[in-house]
Write a structure and sequence with these properties.
The complex is a heterotetramer, with two copies of chain A, one copy of chain B and one copy of chain C. By secondary structure, chain A is of the alpha+beta class. Chain A has a three-stranded antiparallel beta sheet. In chain A, 43% of the residues are buried. By secondary structure, chain B is α+β, with helices and mostly antiparallel strands. The chains are: A alpha+beta, B alpha+beta, C alpha/beta. Bound molecules: adenosine-5'-diphosphate and magnesium ion. The site of magnesium ion has 5 residues of chain B, from helix 7.
């Protein structure tokens, strides 16, 4: 369990959630097919996922958060990026 | 053909064939199958495609009647609804995919049943859903599955512009590990123009259109639906299929326009077992052969093997047969709808399915062997010697009084208002919906040229578990009673048989008895079976699900202006209990709340007496005699009265005289009972035709009820609060 | 009076809009890839899920060739009504101020609501009395109307808030309970609820007809 | 118009789209509220947006694509990240 106490320093974290390779991405397909009509050519391989940004006092929890809540491991992959200390500090 | 090493018998077993079946495949081919052939045989000979364990039973069902336009065997059944129109309808399950990923599983379930409807040339006009989960109050997983399945159904149906007009949902422990997600769809088309799926015309071209083909669901629906969930190791679980309702809505419009313009000879959706089953079945029905070149199939992932292309279950694809002279026009139309068609093969006179990769022949099998020669098995039914299902946990104390029982029943997840679910569904798009959810016992849709359809979907696993024969009859009767309450007369029936592993004798017994009951009830009601689906192997580690035949029925009513409502409407109306209603508490919702074990058997009943009560109610509704009509189902008479009061926002007083057992009278359940209200003179008129007791009057803002000492007196507002209990699950 | 109802891939309620408008005039479907407004006196951008609502509701449809014509038509003062997805398309196209965001309840929600007519003077509401309540269904997942506060103030002052949800009935979290707005010139109107699904007592109510009757009055060709 | 011809080299591009500050993000709120029950504490300021990844033969188009299509400037901010050359090359 993610029970460790925070360090008192808030970290800014970004999670990128993408449809897994091989899983259909209807949104990506629709956007890719729409682009030429808008005058944008030469765009391929459009994939649309979710961007999650948050502040956390214990960044070691984030992996588990992704597995349990932020991403659906059956259809999505995720990537965690630590963006450094947030401007504020934890209470 | 390639001399790559042939698969072994072990690989065949891993794909789900038995050793004997593998040997039979070798005999049919006169040689061992290669990888492509084995993949195709293993799918077409799976339980899901071949109905190995159920076909013999299904053949006992009544399938003919004056209204039947298309019976079982096509993508959907259809009944004549007058004015040259037919209503196509069918129910299908997506249980196992939904247990893995509820949102996508339920969404693609709706997508699949909609394709079955427009595959015969009918425009989908409505969806209904039938759901079963474990106890949502104690199981977080059940809440997760419920939430996902409901949003998935809404996502797909709403985006397609097909209204979801009805459904049912129940929560019982035996569904904890194996939820049920069944979806039913209805469509409307000109009777003369409905198409069949038989490929015809040697030299004609096979055109695949819609989504590109990926690795999703390889071995999916058929593997999933042919084994118990617990048996599947992680790596055997196929890739989750993601539904794309946008693609499907283009597919729908394109398919209907292709048919409207007379451009195609045959049409078939791609469902379980993908190209393999759709092409083989088209060939089989047309008694022709088919050649397919997998190198021409548009792929989502490069480097797919021929066998993967043949068995992929990518959603939102259709296959049609086109005369060569019309090919260009067909391709142009698929381009207009952005569902890009590709010629992938042709109809031949070989009687064989031949699979090519470019010039190379990679599979060659007789169509008859693939489609017709799968062995059918006899079941070995044996009634269980002891109760299969543990008693539920008690939530209502022994000392509870009638009022507490009523409020607990109304708040039970099995009875509480389904509003938090159906508010996630668009129930009105297409401007046909005359009765929305909670306005009447059945949804009512108006038809062009007058008249309308009533439609209902029902199941009651607990009753079927208590008595597979009489329990199934009760479900069919409930469906027909729902139709009667809106004034509709049954035209035809569809069904989905959700059961455990039929290779186990007690499950075989449940299945056999249920099908016997289904046949008996449909015969007695003249409501023939026009289609359906079978979902077996629904078991979790702690045992099988309740045996759950889900019944969908479509009926016709002459005048939608007079479609019945379930809510009390008029202060001073008399309330009557109508029909040969013999309530009993065993297997009731009250018994469940009290933690009672299932009984061994249900009382027998007179199906024809119930039928004539239904006819009397139906005729009274059609004549406009009644202010409200509601059939008595879960929770018994008092719950039915409370529901009518809530639906009409008007109170009632009922007095049950000196009933022998007040609790049985108030909360007992049985088929054949109705609570109706109307002007006292109208009720008197109805009494000349059917067994009827006047039990009270409509009025006020409270519900008063009295029966042999038990008394209830509660404000509508308190009833409403109890009835709203499901909202907390969707907070 | 001739209405043109746009049809995109993924539109759902175009047939309903055509039926509804057909009760007060002639109504034809206009295919998104064409550029011919077919001599229509008013345009309806209907509900549904154009392009699957993928990316953002209305974001892709707004670029179709027919929408380019509709934008020009609107700039010339032509009457344009956007319903639900059509409202989203009109906001994306810049014909109406603001944006529609995900409902605060995060769910697609389908419910009969009452709309209060705030501005009865527009070409879309002139058949209504001030403050009149219309019973109309709403059904959407992204119907939370948003515009910056100062802009909302200006819109209120200019009478651009055309309809609001009746007190307590706004389930989507819209700013100031706004259900529908018009542009400054008053010839473009978008709303989330569905007047085209309230034109027949048999299937609900007839209150939505007022919107179409108003348009017919405004166009001077009422057949009512 | 984005009519320039591509260089023949495909660039991998990532676009991050976020709800603007001050605009309610119901999904972010829901995630933030769900976390404590799952045993995660000290998480604040959760914002959920869209992740779009694509390959393009002329990366100078991407800004315009964002303004016109990928983000709605009234309610969303976007950020473009050039990730370097993609493995394949344009036809
Ligand atoms: N329980 C049942 N009762 C009657 N007909 C059934 C039943 N189960 C399946 N069928 C019929 O068997 C045929 C094959 O069903 P299915 O494999 O589900 O078709 P599809 O692949 O088109 O979904 C259909 O015509 C269906 O109506
Ligand atoms: Mg089919």
């Amino acid at each position: 369990m993610a029970g460790t106490l925070g360090s008192g320093v808030l970290m800014r974290v970004r999670v990128l959630v993408r449809p897994k390779a091989g899983i259909l991405d209807p949104q990506g397909v629709a956007v890719e097919q729409a682009l030429p009509a808008l005058g944008f050519s030469g765009v391929t391989d459009v994939r649309i996922g979710r961007l999650i940004e948050l502040e956390v006092d214990d960044a070691s929890q984030v992996e588990e958060m992704c597995r349990k809540l932020l991403a659906n491991p059956l259809v999505e992959d995720y990537e965690v990026q630590l963006l450094g200390e947030a401007s504020g500090t934890a209470a | 053909m390639s001399d790559a090493a042939l698969p072994t018998v072990e690989e065949a077993v891993a794909l789900g064939l038995t050793r004997d079946e593998y040997a039979l495949v070798c005999t049919k081919l006169d040689r061992p199958p290669n990888q492509v052939e084995l993949a195709m045989f293993s799918l077409l000979w799976s339980e899901h495609c071949a109905y190995k364990h159920s076909k013999k039973l299904l053949m006992t069902l009544p399938t003919e009647g004056p209204f039947v336009v298309m019976g079982p065997g096509e993508n959907a059944g259809a009944v004549d609804v007058g004015n040259g129109l037919a209503c196509a309808f069918k129910v299908e399950s997506h249980n196992h995919p939904s247990a893995v990923e509820p949102f996508q599983g339920a969404a693609t379930g709706v997508g699949g049943i909609l394709r079955d409807i427009f595959a015969i040339g009918a425009r989908p006009i409505a969806v209904l859903d039938s759901l079963r989960f474990g106890n949502p109050l104690t199981s977080e997983r059940s809440r997760f599955l419920l939430d996902g399945a409901v949003s998935g159904i809404g996502h797909y149906g709403n985006s397609m512009g097909v209204p979801t007009v009805g459904g049912e949902v129940y929560f019982e422990e035996p569904y904890e590990q194996n939820c049920l997600v069944n979806a039913m769809a209805l469509g409307l088309g000109e009777t003369e123009k409905l198409v069949r799926s038989a490929a015809a015309g040697v030299g004609n071209v096979l055109v695949l259109y819609g989504a590109s083909t990926g690795r999703d669901g390889i071995g999916g629906a058929s593997v999933l639906a042919s084994a118990e969930l617990g048996e599947l190791s992680e790596d055997k679980r196929p890739t989750v299929q993601v539904g794309d309702p946008f693609e499907e809505s283009k597919l729908l419009e394109c398919s209907l326009e292709l048919l409207e313009r007379g451009l195609i000879v045959a049409l078939q959706d791609l469902g379980a077992a993908g190209l393999t089953s759709s092409a083989s079945e088209m060939a089989s029905k047309g008694e022709v052969g088919i050649d397919i070149d997998v190198a021409t199939v548009p792929l989502r992932e490069a480097d797919m093997e021929p066998f993967e292309i043949m068995v992929s279950e990518s959603q939102e694809r259709m296959l049609c047969v086109v005369e060569p002279g019309k090919l260009a026009e067909v391709i142009a139309l698929t381009d207009k709808w952005e569902v890009h068609g590709t010629a992938i093969g042709s109809v031949t006179d070989t009687g064989h399915m031949r699979i090519f990769r470019g010039e190379e022949l990679v599979g060659d099998m007789s169509v008859a062997a693939l489609v017709d020669d799968c062995p059918l098995y006899d079941l070995s039914p044996a009634a269980p010697t002891q109760q299969l299902y543990p008693a539920p946990a008690a939530v209502l104390g022994e000392d509870a009084d009638a009022q507490e029982a009523l409020l607990t029943l109304l708040a039970s997840p099995n009875i509480a208002s389904r509003r938090p679910l159906f508010e996630q569904y668009d129930s009105i798009v297409q401007s046909r919906t005359v009765r929305r959810p909670e306005e009447a016992d059945a949804a009512v849709l108006q038809l062009p040229g007058g008249g309308g359809l009533g439609v209902s979907i029902d199941g009651n696993g607990r009753k079927v578990a208590a008595d597979p024969y009489w329990g199934t009859i009760a479900v069919v009767l409930e469906c027909a009673s729902n139709l009667a309450c809106v004034g509709a007369e049954p035209l035809g029936t569809t069904n989905n048989l959700n059961f455990g592993n039929p290779e186990k004798p007690h499950i075989a017994w449940q299945l056999t008895e249920a099908v016997r009951g289904l046949g008996a009830a449909c015969r007695a009601l003249d409501a023939p079976i026009v289609g359906g689906n079978v979902s077996l192997y629904n078991e979790g580690a702690s045992g099988p699900i309740y045996p759950t035949p889900v019944i969908g029925m479509v009926g016709r009513l002459p005048d939608v202006e007079r479609a019945g409502r379930l809510g009390f409407a008029q202060e001073g109306d008399a309330i009557a209990l109508v029909g040969p209603f013999r309530p009993a508490l065993p297997a009731s919702e009250l018994a469940r709340l009290r933690g009672e074990a299932l009984p061994d058997g249900l009382p027998e009943l007179d199906i024809l007496a119930v039928r004539s009560a239904q006819e009397a109610v139906r005729d009274a509704v059609r004549e406009g005699l009644l202010s409200s009509a509601h059939d008595i189902a879960e929770g018994g008479l008092l719950v039915a009265v409370a529901e009518s009061a809530l639906a009409g926002s008007i109170g009632a007083t009922v007095e049950l005289g000196d009933a022998d057992d007040a609790w049985t009278a108030l909360f007992g359940e049985a088929p054949g009972g109705f609570v109706v209200s109307g002007h006292p003179a109208a009720i008197a008129q109805l009494a000349e035709r059917v067994e009827l007791d006047i039990i009270g009057a409509v009025g006020g803002e409270r519900l008063h009820a009295q029966a042999a000492g038990a008394a209830v007196d509660v404000a509508l507002a308190d009833l409403r609060e109890a009835h709203g209990a499901l909202a907390q699950l969707f907070a | 009076m001739k209405f043109g109802v746009l049809q995109f891939p993924g539109s759902c309620d175009e047939a309903d809009a055509q039926l509804a408008a057909g009760r007060v005039g002639e109504a034809v479907l206009l295919w998104h890839r064409d550029r011919d407004l077919a001599g229509c006196d008013a345009i309806i951008v209907p509900g549904g899920f154009s392009y699957g609502d993928y990316l953002r509701a209305g974001a892709i449809a707004r670029f179709s060739p027919m929408m380019e014509e509709v934008i020009a038509f609107a700039r010339d003062g032509g009457l344009v009504l956007g319903i639900c997805n059509g409202f989203q398309v009109l906001c994306e196209a810049g014909l109406l101020p603001g944006a529609l965001l995900q409902n605060t309840n995060r769910r697609f929600t389908s419910r009969q609501v009452h709309l209060e007519v705030v501005s009865p003077d527009t070409p879309f509401t002139r058949a209504c009395a001030p403050g009149e309540l219309l019973s109309v269904p709403a059904k959407h997942g992204s119907g939370r109307y948003y515009a910056p506060d100062d802009q909302l103030d200006a819109m209120e002052a200019a009478g651009q808030i055309v309809v609001r949800y009746a007190p307590g009935e706004c389930f989507n979290g819209s700013a100031r309970d706004i259900a529908g707005v018009c542009n400054e010139a008053g010839n473009v109107f978008g709303l989330m609820p569905h007047p085209e699904h309230a034109v027949d007592a048999l299937t609900g109510s007839t209150d939505g007809l007022r919107i179409f009757e108003s348009m017919a009055l405004a166009a001077g060709g009422a057949h009512v």
